[in-house]
Amino acid sequence: LGTDVMAQIMSFLEPPEVHSFLTTPFSKSWLETYTNPQELWKVLCSSKPFYAKLDESDYGSSDASTSSYPLCNDLERYHLVGQFRLLFTSFVKCMKYLDRIKDDALN
Known about the structure:
Blueprint: H1 3-10, H2 15-23, H3 28-35, H4 38-45, H5 63-67, H6 75-81, H7 83-106
Helix pairs in contact: 1-4, 4-7
């Protein structure tokens, strides 16, 4: 399956489920095909429910662009995980946090 097809399949799941599914280490092939490449994470960040407006000039490969990245100060971890996967992970963590606040407010 390609990136576009996998993104369509993932659209049927909630973002926390997508994150869990894509980061589960099923096999080395899965890791190389879906977990590591940034294109799928980029598509997921820019689609429902996040609709992130990703400017290509802000996400270059130079070290200057990574030093201003607000979500990760550790440059090694930034390159290890990838900028779009890290961004999607941050979105999911925010969603979980907001859901907890909402549940606490209702109780």
